[in-house]
Amino acid sequence: MSTSVKQATWAIDPIHSTIRFDAKYLLISTVSGWFREFEGTVVSGQDGFCNSEINLTIYVNALTTGNDERDNHLRSPDFFDAKQYPMIQFRSTTVSMQEKNIAVTGILTVKGVEHPFSFTANFLGMCADPMGNTKAGFDMDTVLNRKDFNITWNQLFDKNGLLLSDEVKVHCDLQLLKLS
């Protein structure tokens, strides 16, 4: 007799989710940007998010920092090269629960470069929204080195200073909508 494991499929609710990145400019202040368009799914067991399969796609052309000139530069070959690499993608390889946190390991692909990527997401809870849909909330903070993804453009200023940090902080607030 075989037993089947029931799975739940969740979609990222883009209206109630944000993906932000922060980098140091002149190495003294922070410039923030957001990706306004992204989509993703999580396939989980009915008993929680352990052993889930996570897939995320972020559309590079939808990045914004609030400055058109800077946004166009970030979309150029100097940075993300949005024409040649229109998407940033993540797919999980392992997902495990650690109390209320979820440890996630996978492959992050930026600008055609695949790189192992691990982070811890905070599970914030689950509830029904006013329309009766089941929602789950997560947030996470991590740090990336942009050079790992062949994003190397920079400039020297003031004889020995760098214009931009190599370290980029990423913050996500994600709300999932249970589809099945």
TrEMBL record:
InterPro entries named among the record's database cross-references: Lipid/polyisoprenoid-bd_YceI, TTHA0802/YceI-like_sf
Pfam (any one): YceI
Ranges where the Lipid/polyisoprenoid-binding YceI-like domain occurs: 9-177
The protein's name in its UniProt record: YceI family protein
Transmembrane segments: none
